[in-house]
Amino acid sequence: MPPRKHSVARNTAAMAVGQVGSKFLLLLSMMLLSRYLTDTPFGGLMFAAALGQLLWGIVDMGVSGIVNRQVSVKPSSAQRIFSVALGLRIVLFVAALGLLLGISAVSGAEPWEVLFIGLVGAGMAFEAVCELHFSVFRARERMIHEAVTRISAGVVSVILVILVLRFDLGAKMAVATYLARSLVVVVVSSILVYRIFRIRVVPSFRFGSMWGLFREAAPLAVMALFMFGAQKLDNVVIRTMLSVEHVGAYQECFKLLEAAILIINPTLIPGALFPWLCQSFASGWKKARKSMAQLTQLVVGLSLLVSIPLMSGGFSLLRFLWGGGFLRGVGASEMLGTYMLVIASIPFFFWLVALQGGIVAARRQRVAAKVGLTGMVVNVVTNLILLPRIGLMGAGVAVILSDLVMAFLFYAALSRKRPLPVFGEIWKPALAAIPAAVSALLLSGAHALVRLAVPALAFILVWLPLGGLNMLRTVREDRELCEGSG
C-alpha cells in the first residue's frame, strides 16, 4: 500500500520549515564566515557560490519538474523515471563540473579561486542530484522528508563552520564545508526515498531513455540555464567591471533575496501546490484560470509580507547579519541603494515563479527557452550599461528589469489563445501593504528585529481577514473531491 499523502497545510508547513530552516542555518554559517574571512576570500567564496548555483542549473536541466509532473500523474512510473533521470544527472554532473573547472583555470583565475569553485561547484552538483529525491517527495505529497533532509544538512553546515572557526583551519577548509554539507543531503535523502517509497537509488544509463527525457525537459532546461544566467552571470560582470569585493557586497544583499524566494520556490511551486496546479490545468481552462488568479493573489501577498519588512530593516539588518565590515569597501549610499533595489525585485520574482509553474502545468514549456534567453540578455546588457555609471546599484536595476520582462512574457504566453485575468484579487495584499509600509516608516530608528516584526504583523492583521490564505482551503477541498471521486 502506498504511503498516505499528507494534507496541503502539513506539506506547506513542512516545506516552509525545511526551506526556511535550512536557509537560516546556511545563512548563519555564512554570517560566521563573513566575520572570519577577510574581504578578498569572502568575495571569492561568494563568487564561487554564484557559479556553483549556475552549475546546479546545468545539472538539473529542468528534469526535476518533469519528474515531479510524471510521478504526480502516474505514481507507478516513479522507479523508471527516477533511474533514468539519475543516470542523466550523473552524466551532466561530470561533464559540467569538468567544464567549469577547465574554463576557470584557463580564464586567468587564481589557483585558490579555482579550488573554491571546484569545492563549491561539486557541492552544488550533489545537491542538484538530490533534487530528484525531492521531486518524488513533492509528487507523492510527503514533503516532511525533504524538510528533514534539508534541516540535517543545515545543522551539519553550522557545526562544521564552528569547528573551522574554533580551530582556525583557514579559508580552504571553510569553503570545504559546502561540499561536506551536500554529502549529508545525498546520504539522508537516498535513505529516505528508499525506505518510504521503495525507490532504489540506482541510475539507468540507457541512451534512448536519457535522450527522451532530455528532449522532453529541454525547453525547461534551456530556460533554467538562461534564468540562472540572468541571476548569476551578473556576478561575473561585477567581478570583471568592479572587483571581487563588490561581488561579496552584492551577494550579501542577494542572499536575503534567495532566502525570501524559498517561501514560494520550491515550497509552493514546484512544491506543495504544484500537483494541484497540474490537476487544475488538466481539468480545463475555466478551472485553470481560476487557480492562476488565486495563486497570483497568494504570491503577491507573500512577496509583500517579506519585502516590506526587509526594506524596513535596511542597514541595521545588513550590519546585524554580516558584521561591521558588511560594506566590503563599497560606499554606504551605493550599498543601501543596491540592497533596496534587490529587495524590491521580490514581488516580480514571486509572480514569475507562479507563471512559470502555470507554463509547466499547461505543458507549454517550449516557450520557456525564449523567455529565459530574453531575461538573461536584459540582465547582462543592463549591467554592462549601468555598472560603469551608477556602480553596484546597476545590478539591482538589472534584477528587477529582467524579472519583470520574463514575467510578462510568461503571462503573454499563457493568455495568448484565451484571456487569463489574474489580477482580480490583488487589492487584498495591496490594501494590507499600506499599514505595513506606514509602520516601517514610523520605526526607522528602532532595532533591526523590531523593524522586521512590526511591519510583518501589520500586514498579516489586514491580509488574513481579507482572505489572503483562502486558496489553501480551496486546494484542500479540491483534493478531497478528487480523492472521493477516485
Descriptive terms for the model:
486 residues, mainly alpha, 2 domains, 19 helices, 82% helix
Question: Summary?
Answer:
Helices cover 82% and strands 0% of the residues.
User: What is the count of distinct domains?
Assistant: 2
Outline the biggest β-sheet.
none
Strand content: under 5%
What's the total number of strands?
0
For the termini, the CA-CA separation is 16 Å
Rg on CA atoms, Å: 22 Å
- Strand pairing plus helix content: what structural class? mainly alpha
- State mean pLDDT (0 to 100 scale): 84
Name the overall outline: globular
Q: Which segments are poorly predicted (pLDDT under 50) over 5 or more consecutive residues?
A: none
Sequence of secondary-structure elements: HHHHHHHHHHHHHHHHHHH
Helix fraction, binned, reads over 70%
Report the total helices. Answer: 19
Question: What do you see in this structure?
Answer:
There is one protein chain. The mean pLDDT is 84. The chain has two domains: 1-205, no CATH class; 226-479, no CATH class. It is built from 19 helices and no strands. By secondary structure, the protein is mostly helical.
Topology record:
Layout: H1 8-36, H2 39-60, H3 63-73, H4 78-106, H5 111-139, H6 144-166, H7 171-197, H8 207-241, H9 244-261, H10 268-272, H11 274-282, H12 285-322, H13 332-344, H14 346-361, H15 368-390, H16 393-414, H17 427-442, H18 448-463, H19 470-485
